[in-house]
Every structure is written in C-alpha cells, then in structure tokens.
Amino acid sequence: MVGWSTNLLFRSRKRRRRGTSTKQRCNYIQQENAQEQKEQEEEDDDGGFKLKTSACGVQPLGNLYFSSSAHNSRNTGLGNLQTLTDELVLDILGLLDATHLGNLAAVSKSFYVFCTHEPLWRNLVLEKYGGDFLFDGSWRYTYAKAYKPLAGSLNGGGSLGLKVKDFYSDYLFQSWLCANLEMRPDWLERDNILRRKGISVDEFVRDFEEPNKPVLLEGCLDGWAALGKWDREYLVETCGDVRFAVGPVEMKIDDFFRYSDQAREERPLYLFDPKFGEKVPILDSDYEVPVYFNEDLFNVLGKERPDYRWIIIGPAGSGSSFHIDPNSTSAWNAVIKGSKKWVLFPPDVVPPGVHPSPDGAEVACPVSIIEWFMNFYSATKDWKKKPIECICKAGEVIFVPNGWWHLVINLEDSVAITQNFVSRRNLLNVLDFLKKPNASSLVSGTKDRVKLYDKFKNAIEAMFPGTIDQLMQKAEERMAQHEKPSFWDSVTDTKAGAFKFSF
Asked: Which is an annotated Pfam family here (predicted)?
C-alpha cells in the first residue's frame, strides 16, 4: 500500500523537484520528517512541557495554547472546508473510494492526515475484500497490498508515517489515544462483585437468579476440555478453513489471529460467532453448560430459537460497549483464555454517557470502550448506586441477570463462551418483551421477529401446561405483598392523634 500511496504524495512534489529519482524523493521526505520531528521535540521540551502527539503529529487542541505559533495546519490545509467539524469531514471522506482518497491525501498536509485516518481504510478493506485479506500493520497498507501485491517495496511494508507539524484536533487525537492507551490501574482496582464457589443450584436461584443479581462463579468449569485444549494452535488446526463471523465479515481463524496480533486501533475487530458449534462440532463437545444454567426454555423452539450462544475471541482492547442482552434474556459468560474487565449497572440505572432511545431500539454511547473509561468512569465513584465491577479470569463464569447494562473489555488476548437463556425466573419478562408493540425492531437473533411471541408462548404451554399461569399468580402475590402496608403505615393520622390525646 505504501508504495502505491507514496507515489500519489510524490505528485505534489514533482513540480518543484523534477528529475529526481524515487530513491532521492524518499530520502528527501525522510530528511524533512526527521528535521520536523527534531524541531517538535525541541518545542516539547521548552519550559518543562512534554506535549504528546499522535503517530502522524496530531496534537490535542489545547496544545495550541502552549505553542509558540498560533498556526493550525488543520485549518489552512482544509481551505473553505475548515468550518466543518472533524466528524463531518470524515463522514464526507467515507463516501470516497481508495483512489480518490489517495489523490486527495496529496492536496495538503491537512488532507493527508484526514485521508490516512485508519477507520476509513478499514471500511474500504472490509467492503472490497470482505474477510479475504491478510492484515499487514495498518489498514491502509493492507488495502494497497491486496490491490497491488508489490506495494510497499520502497520501504519494506508498514506505513511511511509522515509527520505533520502544527496540526491540532481533539477528535483525531482522541481516536489515536484510545487506540494506543492501555487500561489504567485505577480502572481495574475496583472489584465488588460477589464471588461464590461450590454453591448448590438452589442457592444460586435463591441468592442471585430470583433477586436478579450478578455473581462470579468459580470452579464450575473444571471439567471443561476446552480449558486445556483451546490454545491458538488447537483452534487453527481444528477450525482449518472454516469461516467465523468477525464484525460485518467472515474470516478464517488463522487470518483473524494474524490481524489480532498486529491490531492497534480504537475499536478492534472481535470474533463473535453464533454458529460455531454447527460449523465445528468438536468445539461443541469441548464444553458443557454449567449446572446453574441448565434450564433454558427457549429450547422449546428447536431450530427456530433466536441465536443464543457465541464463541468470542479478541485481542486486548476489544470488547462490547454498554448494552442490555437481547430479548430480555439472562446470560452467562465463561472465560477460557485470558481475562475480561466487567462493568455492570442495574436495569434502573443508565450508565453515564449512554443514551438509549425512548423505545429502547437504539443506544447512543461513546465511540469506544476506552473513551468511556477516559471520560465517564471516574464519575461513577461518587454515585450512590455504584456499578458492579470485576475481572473475570480463565476458568471463571459471570452471571449477567436480565435487564442489566454491561460493558466488557478484554485485558489480554482472550477466548470465551457465552450463552443467553430463559428460565422460569425470567420467563414472564421475556414474554412481555416479545409482545411489545415495537417488538419487530427490538427482537434480535431471528428472522421471525413478529410471530416469535406466539410461537414461544404456545410452545411453552404445550410443553409445560399451566406454567405461565402459575408464574403470573406468584408474581401477583409478590406484588400484593410488597404493596401491603405495614402496621405503622396502617395507623391513620386520626387514630394516632386520638391515641396521643388520650394521654
């Protein structure tokens, strides 16, 4: 890719340096960048400040106030487009193909920064090649190498990494920072989840499932063959050319590992496949559902049940931003390799920075998980209802009750199994969810979103006659019990006054 894109950059320089060879032009660019980097370092050290910049020189806007120059090359390089927000500029550039992006990158240093923004090239790779690509250091270089296999011969691959001076942008800098920042120790120190080992199923139901509380379970995966077998070599050998769902594409697992070894981006791709057991049956036999979650009433639908189980593989920094599990189900998540940081909020507490639509069909939240930690996590320390947090390690299982908001981020390369389920404890919640007026926009994991309620309810009544009526009766009794006034509440003001007057 670099060999191809640098040729585009050279076009803007040829008018001043006609007749120079490709090698001479490369040497000139490298010398120019080295000089600019040296000047930047001298400025950074001035007055005791160390001003952080991104790989291509982008700095946060606040650094402009400490600069000896009031010049922001972001604005001069964009010309009349400088009035647009960075997000809007990138949205517009996202409409262009690779050739036009490459040409536009040669217009100015500012356009070079915007046009080499990695998410733009990630979209181009996934749209053009699907899962048939071999990641090679950056998305831009990956695209060019797939487009022209000899690309990059000028410098042996990777990214030329031109450094732009005096470019200030909070949006672009934060994108780079989120891609390169590791989890801080103070983001990991809080661990307030209840942990249990060796409890009975009845204890689990009484203490956690019925009251709808999270718990981390230890020791219940000890019999899993997957714990000892599912390393990279085993998965690559076992899965071979089978393709797994990775974001919007499907990839061979070996190609995904090649990507995850090199990925350094704000939102790394995440292997998240609901059909892994059907695709590779031996994986299905390497684990079994923990005894606490054996009751799964969606089983009555057979092959028509919504997606419910996934194999999850991802590099450090990958994960899922805040969401509530689909179809009002509860879930369990078992870590086989690696470790995960969990943050959970109860159903009545919306996490800071998260904005669900009134009907629950859409959720607006920060672009990346790291961004949420940077901008919102500290606020939760002062909340009366603090989130439940933990680090779930290999061999441990977390129970996620229905309706709970949760965020998950891999702290290292991780492999996990997760399943959503419906038990008697949350059956009524699921039925209520499936019959909502806008269920067709809320239900997920199935093609038949409209008739799922009727199919599920009829199947439950046929398989377990009277169960729904019994659960509704118990729910009404519990509600009446909660609404029943206490002795002191039943004493009226008149009686209390008469009682007091008699003395």
From this structure: F-box-like
Name the helix (H) or strand (E) containing 167: strand 167-168
Report, in angstroms and rounded to the nearest whole number, the Rg of the chain calculated over CA atoms.
Answer: 28
CATH number for the domain running over 185-463: 2.60.120.650
Phi/psi region, residue 198 (left: phi>0; alpha: psi -120 to 50; beta: rest), is left
Could you tell me the end-to-end alpha-carbon distance of the chain, in angstroms, rounded to an integer?
A: 94
Buried b / exposed e along 257-287 (16+ C-beta atoms within 10 A): bbbbeebebbbbbbbbbeebbeebeebeebb
Element (H, E) at 312: strand 309-314
**CA-CA-CA-CA torsion sign (488, 385, 419, 221):** negative
Query: How far is the C-alpha of 229 from the C-alpha of 220, rounded, in Å?
Result: 17
Query: How far apart, in whole angstroms, are the C-alpha atoms of residue 82 and residue 168?
Result: 12
The DSSP bridge partners found for residue 334 are 397, 417
pLDDT tens by residue, 356-382? 888 777 888 888 999 999 999 999 988
Residue with token string 């061979």: 252
Cα–Cα distance, 302 to 7 (Å, whole number):
57
The answer to whether the Cα torsion of 43, 46, 47, 53 is positive or negative is: positive
Please check whether residue 265 is in contact with residue 126, taking contact to mean a CB–CB distance below 8 angstroms: no
State the DSSP code for 183: P
**C-alpha–C-alpha distance, residues 43 and 10, integer Å:** 28
| β-bridge partners, 415 | 313, 337
Domain with CATH 2.60.120.650 in the chain: 185-463
Name 407's bridge partners. Answer: 343
Rounded to an integer, what distance in angstroms lies between the CA atom of residue 378 and that of residue 386?
11
209 near 332, Cβ under 8 Å? no
Q: Are 13 and 30 in contact (CB under 8 A)?
A: no
Listed in sequence order, the residues at least 6 apart from 45 whose beta carbon sits closer than 8 Å to its beta carbon are none
Question: What are the phi and psi torsion angles at 201 (to 5°)?
Answer: -65, -40
Cα distance between residue 449 and residue 441, in whole Å: 8
* pLDDT, tens digit, 9 for 90 and up, residues 123-174: 999 999 999 999 999 999 999 888 876 544 434 344 456 788 889 999 999 9
Q: Does residue 427 contact residue 453 with C-beta atoms inside 8 Å?
A: no
What DSSP line would sit under 22-36, residue for residue? HHHHHHHHHHHHHHH
What's the token pair of residue 369? Answer: 């998980």
Give 410's contacts (C-beta < 8 A, 6+ positions apart).
314, 315, 316, 317, 318, 319, 338, 339, 340
- Hey, which residues does 323 pair with through a beta bridge? 406
Residue the block writes with tokens 């995440």 = 270
In angstroms, the CA 158 to CA 212 distance is 49
Backbone angles phi, psi at 442, to 5 degrees: -100, -40
pTM for the full predicted model: 0.82
